[in-house]
Amino acid sequence: MPTASPAGSAEGSRLSSLRFTDPQHEPGWRHVVVPAPSGRELPAAPRPLSVEVAGAGRMHSLEEWQAATSTTSLLVLEQDRIVHESYADGLGRDTLFLGASMTKSVLAHLVGRAVTDGVLHLDDPVTSHVPELGGSGYDGPTVQDVLTMTSGVDWVEDHRDPAGPASRLLAAFGDGGDSRALLRTIGPDVAPGRRWVYNTADSQVLDWVRERATGRSYADDAALLWHDLGCTHDAVVAVDGHGAALAGGGLAATSRDWARIALLAVDGTTHDGTRVLDVGWVDAAARAAYAFTATGRLPSSITTHAGFGLHWWPLDDDGARVTADGSRGQFAAADRSTGAVVVKTSLWPYDDALADRQARDLSYLGIHTLLDQLTPQ
Q1: pLDDT top residue among 27 and 83
Q2: S-S: 96 plus which of 20, 123, 299, 303, CB 3.0-4.6 Å?
Q3: Phi/psi of residue 52, each to 5°?
Q4: What is the pLDDT of residue 8?
């Protein structure tokens, strides 16, 4: 029986293990740059955080929790100000951290803008934008279905199986292949909207639809978002041999710029109050679309600490807390009632499924503990 991958593990052990210091020279992967404007740094007001995390059968100080979950960076924002920022040795503000499946939540922001602009609708059939998928499992599902990972296609997300479809999809980004050719071979399994399966193919199809609707690549659309967010550092995104982005897991950015992604999930505005997304969109993204995707209702092999919304992970049923989630411990979480944000990047072992699961559970518990301590705006 294959081991189910944890939430956000779409990048597998190889890509998710990269931690970029010079991303354009990372061997074996082609990337394109997402340019940043000369943005404004997030304001800082450092203060001590007295935190104890209860989990894994013991109490952890903040430092012990970071060590136990192989933390590479931790950034905490309160009232739009950085109150805590720390990095593992040799890393810092200029390091580009691979977000792994946090990339999917950036994709959700891009899709939200396309919907707001009226060039994309959630009830659009996938094939109305990408007719090349006619006759595949995506001939029938709508944008809503791929956005909620309820497309019903025949897919198993198991990156510990080197011959599985998820591993073959990733291979196109390592060997210069054509990732979209694989998407055309995926067949149907169950009716759309009846079952949730963690599925990076759905994300890749969603990005293909978004690209056709907007006329912009993932990197070009992300560059517009980077400009509006006032990001201060270029990001990079992995692409296959035909230039299609790994929209399900290939974006690398600084922790401070990942924090801007989480801030946008609070109410659709930037840290200086500029509206970027419709508030109705970010509210919908932070809530489960179905009873079976509510918090605690996903397969336990994925997580018992979150649900699934519109390519974001609700941490409660009220839409108050939500996170982006990537393989091996990448999180950009927001408390929408207080405006607080926690960004945590990590590099824990992936091959041991039990160790992976314990680190993920402990990370969720620590993120909640940190958010509990932060005051409202």
Answers
A1: 83
A2: 20
A3: -125, 125
A4: 35
Dist. CA 340–CA 63, nearest whole Å: 20
Burial of 309 (0-12, 13-18, 19+ CB in 10 A): buried
215-274 pLDDT per residue, tens: 999 999 999 999 999 999 999 999 999 999 999 999 999 999 999 999 999 999 998 889
CATH superfamily of 22-117+217-373: DD-peptidase/beta-lactamase superfamily (3.40.710.10)
Position 28 scores a pLDDT of: 63
Which of 283, 267, 285 has its CA nearest to residue 275? 267
Whether 201 contacts 186, CB under 8 Å: yes
Nearest to 314 by CA among 285, 344, 278, 282: 285
Q: Tokens for 273, please give them.
A: 């109050």
3-class DSSP assignment, residue 186: coil
Residues paired with residue 346 on neighbouring β-strands, in sequence order:
71
300 three-class SS: coil
Cβ(202)–Cβ(146) below 8 Å = yes
Task: Please report the pLDDT score of residue 29 as a whole number.
Answer: 76
Helix, strand, coil shares of the chain, percent, nearest 5, are 35, 20, 50
Paired tokens of 155: 């897919």
Strands (E) across 79-226 are located at: 81-87, 97-98
> pLDDT per residue over 90-118, tens digit each?
999 999 999 999 999 999 999 999 999 99
Number of C-beta neighbours around residue 14 at 10 A: 16
Torsion angle of C-alpha atoms 302, 109, 221, 134, degrees rounded to 10 = 60
Q: What is the pTM of this model?
A: 0.93
CA angle, 130 then 309 then 20, to 5°: 75
Gap between the Cα atoms of 118 and 93, Å rounded = 37
Q: What is the pLDDT of residue 272?
A: 82
Q: Which long-range contacts (CB under 8 A, 24 or more apart) does 119-123 make?
A: 119/213, 119/214, 120/209, 120/210, 120/213, 120/214, 122/147
